[in-house]
Amino acid sequence: MDEKISLLASYIKECENIVFFGGAGVSTESGIPDFRSKDGLYSQDYAFSFEKILRSSFFYLNPFVFFDFYRNKMDVRDKEPNFTHTFLTTLEEKGKLKAIITQNIDGLHEKAGSKNIISLHGSIYNNYCIKCNKRYDVNFIFESKKIPTCSCGFPIKPDIVLYGEELSIHTLSLAIEKIKNADMLIVGGTSLSVFPANTLLSYFHGKRLVIINMEKTDFDKDAHLVIHHKIGEVFKLLSQKSV
Ligand code: NAD
In Å, what is the CA distance from 11 to each residue of 4, 44, 199, 213, 241? Predict the structure, then answer.
């Protein structure tokens, strides 16, 4: 492990345009379950599969069940950033890290103080009426009973990308541009199994690709360095190497 941490430290020292691309595994150390680990949300019991509840069509056909699940499982307002979030904020402040591209919807990178965040799948903190587009606060959604409803009478939808919905072209283009210009890409806490987020790696042509994930991914073979370990612990060891 020590050898890998030293290698990672040397990569960070030699690179000036680093991009971090992360997923749910970044926030598990803040107490938010991911989807696909053995302790993840998919492993827990619920009447419907999570993939089904989080489909766009399910939201429109069964908003009552959707919001029951949403309030029970996705209210992470009380969660705090962990070492990974704050480490990335520091790396950005040092001018090394140019962007965080995240699949997470929990707002923890913002809470940690990072500035250049591209949220591919939206955020629970943004909510809008499906009819008149009026914006609503996150507390309004989680504190409402049954289906949160706009003053115009239509349901309010969290501005998150549900299964079956397309990512914003603008957001995707921004992410592609950052990755194309990067000399180092650190991928962390993602199974890289969600399309089209997982296609982003193909735009990277820089010097160093690093993957830090508890489990193997299909992209491990393309990386210069792979670490199968908790990302927060990896970054703690890294910070001891004065990175
Ligand atoms: P995923 O659940 O498919 O994969 C998470 C990966 O992270 C797993 O491979 C797991 O081994 C790894 N992991 C878990 N804890 C880790 C840790 N401490 N250190 C290193 N690796 C760790 O997640 P995904 O790839 O992000 O895709 C799932 C989708 O679900 C995304 O679209 C995401 O938006 C959404 N999601 C978001 C949150 C959140 O906002 N916190 C939580 C669950 C799911």
Answer: 11, 38, 23, 18, 12
For residue 139, tell me if it sits in a domain. no
In a domain, 175, yes or no: yes
- On whether the pTM is more than 0.85, the answer is yes
Q: Cα(17) to centroid of ligand 1, in Å?
A: 24
The structural domain count of the chain equals: 1
Question: The domain that contains 18 carries what CATH number?
Answer: 3.40.50.1220
The domain of 235 spans 1-31+82-121+168-243
Q: How far is the CA of 173 from the centre of ligand 1 (A)?
A: 22
What confidence score (pLDDT) does residue 243 get? Answer: 75
Q: How confident is the model at residue 15 (pLDDT cuts 50, 70, 90)?
A: very high
Give the residue, by CA position, lying nearest to ligand 1 atom 14.
25
Whether the Cβ atoms of residue 136 and residue 127 lie closer than 8 Å to each other: yes
